[in-house]
Design brief:
With 164 residues, the protein is of the alpha+beta class. The chain is built from 2 helices and 9 strands. Helix content is 23%, strand content 41%. The chain has an 8-stranded antiparallel barrel with strand order 1-2-3-4-5-7-8-9. It is globular and about 75 Å long. The relative contact order is 0.14.
Length: 164
């Protein structure tokens, strides 16, 4: 009789352990199914900019990011719906033609060499990147001065308001 009791006890232990193992697997499956993905959704890429979005005349103020001279340089940017006819018009009467390209949500402007409006007697070329934000053109210009030695590069922050 002891032998039958032992077999019964061993069988019930095996059945109990098998049942626990299934319960653990079911609990893991349920927990995995109920888990909430806390990964934030990927940010949407900014909308591509079209030249038609910025076509018109813009009153721009460019201010140096650093240095002793923090006075602003003002000019009017003429923008067209294509790459032709873009230019800078300075109050001094200097008109500077621009080469234009679009890169995603930005418009990139490169100038020909022109007389600096900040440094008398100096020649400069500029590269500007603008984005359209809240109805304004905002961006940054890198000015490169010819024959200026260590002081040959100037960084400026720009903000433009569309003229009526």
């Amino acid at each position: 009789m002891q032998r039958i009791t032992r077999i019964a006890l061993a069988s019930s232990t095996v059945l109990f352990l098998a049942g626990c193992a299934k319960s653990d697997e079911a609990a893991k499956d349920t927990a995995a199914a109920m888990a909430v993905d806390t990964t934030p959704p990927a940010a949407a890429a900014p909308a591509a900019l079209s030249l038609a979005d910025v076509a018109g005349k813009w009153q721009v103020r460019a201010t140096p990011e650093s240095g002793k001279d923090t006075s602003a340089t003002d000019y009017v940017l003429t923008a067209t719906a294509d790459t032709a006819g873009w230019r800078l018009d300075f109050p001094s009467g200097v008109k500077v033609p621009l080469t234009v390209s679009v890169a995603g949500d930005s418009v990139v402007l490169e100038s020909a060499t022109f007389p600096s409006q900040r440094r008398k007697g100096a020649k400069v070329t500029t590269e500007t990147v603008y984005r359209l934000q809240d109805g304004k053109l905002v961006g940054r210009t890198t000015a490169r001065y010819a024959n200026a030695g260590a002081d040959s590069v100037l960084q400026l922050r720009n903000e433009g308001t569309k003229l009526p």
